[in-house]
Amino acid sequence: MEKIPYTTTNIEIKTAPKKRTGVMKILTPWLFLLPAILVLVVFLVIPIIEAFKWSFLDYKIIAGTGEFVGLDNFKEIFTDDKFWLAFFNTILFLVIVLPLNVFLPMVLAVLVNQSIKGVGTFRVLYYLPVITPMVVAALMWKMLYSQSGLISEFLMMIGIFDQQTNLLVNSSTALVAVAMITVWKGLGYYMIMYLAGLQSIPKDVYESASIDGASSLQQFWKITVPMLMPSITLVSVMTIIGGLKVFEEIALTTGGGPVGATTTLVMYIYDKFMNLDVSIASAAGMVLLVLAIGASLLQMKLTSKREEDLRA
Amino acid sequence: MKSKILGKRISVYVLMVLITVITVGPFLVTLFMALKSPGEGIYEGILPQDPTMVNFIDSFEKANFGTYFLNTVIVTVMAVPLNLLFCSLAAYPLARMDFRGRGLALALIISTMMVPFQLYMAPLFQIAGELGLRNTHLGLVILQVSTAFGIFLMRQAYLRVPKELEESAYLDGANKFQVWYKIALPIVKPTIITLAIYTFTFTWGDYLWPLLNTTKSGMYTLSIGLAQLSQNFDGSNMKLISAASILTTIPTLLIFIWLQKYFVSGQTDGAVKG
User: Do A247 and B223 count as a contact with CB atoms less than 8 A apart?
Assistant: First the structure.
């Protein structure tokens, strides 16, 4: 009998530290994760779950309660002309921005990728809009667009208009005018994306092309553009994801007007929230989420395909 | 042949300068507007006839931009170190430790990156109110003190740290926390700087959340103060708005000039897979 406790303590001595390291092994990663997870759960995960719930409730934010109404909120937005206008405006906005975002920064990247004097400075100057606070960018452009502002004067000078015109208050030009702010702000950002892509194109491809007598323009269309395809898809998807969320450019210049011409989905959600129609806002937010997930999945598919291509 | 090359080079420069007019022009127009004296018409030429600092002084003295500036500094000074600490901690086990729930935690964090803020801003507004965060500095930074993007960015950086370095430290008897702090963290310093810059620019310019969570003008950040000032967007106010816009931009501009290369490297790191 006396031997047994002796051996068990012996075993305990052997296993006790193991047990402790076992617990520590489970705990350690979560200790690292704890602060971030705590913040993300309280201020991100719970609000997202709430938004899901609210979209099926008739939620009153002041009372803090709501009754289950099934799909009524979705029925309401899908029969609301203003929702469809916002949906259509969002798509139209993307259609305006997408080709410009794909093409203009590419030209910039090709220009500043040359080994000539001063390109470093130009890169910095092209990047400036990216670091500008969005509110500032929106207000600067609002000033430029104003009735007697520079853009109005310029358009008169080149004969597009015969009188002073504020593009932001004209319902047929307002969305384009707002989209230009987005394009301007993104020029330098997407230029950098393209620069990374350009630097992966082998130089000898161009050398043999010039020996064959291809002009710079031919080289651009026949070599640069096809070789930049991965960057082009990346820029496109990022433009879509970013474009879906555009807010300041619109809220601070047109406020969604004139007569809803610049009301995008985000502006629609914002207006509903301001009217305390939070359940309607949540339902419309779900539509926005579906679009964003679609774009993100597309990006994942494209980038993983690209990685496979690189490995192959 | 030589003149053809020269001609081509000149046209390249002309094109680059024209693009500069588009990217930098709006800043210059705004700066010139801000320098115009009170009596000067806002559309009488682009250049100020009689440059003055009076609009900058007014933005502090009459438009309360000193308070907004201070609020923005407080908020940014809170957000940057907290986000760096929390993200660099959280990302480490996701990159380097094998544990149950890792896949789930990672999937959860990455999937939240897709969710547009506008979907959950109303519930967040309510939660912030219930937790007493309305009109507080802490309330303004809750979205920046630990970000899914930051965790993702830091994880990518840890994955590139050579495992051998950590393994030799473990052999020397270091624990996980020491290895993280002494080995991994110094190696990913460039990414930390990148994340700092991101957090800074985002917090400094954030608009929608501060707009929702702030009802007292004493708690306004620069973006909110500027937006409020621009509610009255007429000639009399334009010079003041311009001066305030320039003031709001200067800190980000200085950081950009100081840490330029990290802006660019961070952007490509974060985007290639994010």
Answer: no
Cβ <8 Å between A292 and B116: yes
CATH of the domain at A78: 1.10.3720.10
B272·A61 Cβ contact <8 A: no
Could A111 and B204 be called an inter-chain contact, meaning their C-beta atoms sit closer than 8 Å?
Answer: no
Residue A67 is assigned to a structural domain of this protein: no
Is the same domain home to A41 and A102? no
Query: Does residue A26 sit in the same domain as residue A149?
Result: no
Residue of A nearest to B131 (CA): A42
Beta-carbon separation of B123 and A46 below 8 A: yes
Mean pLDDT throughout A209-220?
Answer: 87
Shortest distance between the Cα of B96 and any Cα of chain A, in A, equals 9
Q: What is the ipTM of this complex?
A: 0.90
Mean pLDDT, chain A, integer: 87
Verify that A148 and A261 share a domain, yes or no.
yes
Q: Peptide bond preceding A5: is omega within 30 degrees of 0, i.e. cis?
A: no
Whether B87 contacts chain A with CB within 8 A: yes
One domain for residues A82 and A10 = no
A5 Cα to chain B: minimum distance (Å): 33
Using H for helix, E for strand and C for coil, what is the string for B223-246?
HHHHHHHCCCCCHHHHHHHHHHHH
Pick from A36, A133, A266: which is nearest to B223 by CB? Answer: A133
- Indicate the number of domains in chain A: 2
CB contact under 8 A, A273 and B122: yes
B22/A216 CB distance under 8 A: no
CATH topology for the B64-273 domain: MetI-like fold (1.10.3720)
Do A11 and A141 lie in one domain? The reply is no
- Domain of A13? 3-54
Q: State whether A159 and A300 are in the same domain.
A: yes
- Assess whether A77 and A48 both reside in one domain: no
Rounded mean pLDDT of A206-225?
A: 87
**Token representation of residue A7:** 């051996």
Chain B residue whose CA is closest to A124: B260
Instruction: Give the start-to-end residue ranges of the domains of chain B.
Output: 1-52, 64-273
Residues 202-261 in B contacting A (C-alpha not used; CB under 8 Å): 204-205, 207-208, 222-223, 226-227, 230, 233, 238, 241-242, 245, 248-249, 252-253, 256, 260
Q: Which residues of A touch B170 (CB under 8 A)?
A: none
Residues of chain B with pLDDT under 50: 272-274
Q: For residues A187 and A40, state if they share a domain.
A: no
* Closest to B114 (Cα-Cα) out of A94, A44, A50, A95: A44
Digit-coded pLDDT (tens) for A298-310: 877 776 766 666 5
Q: What is the pLDDT of residues B198-256, one digit of tens each?
A: 899 999 999 999 999 999 999 999 999 999 999 887 777 889 999 999 999 999 999 98
Residue partners of A205: CB distance under 8 A and separation at least 6: A223, A227
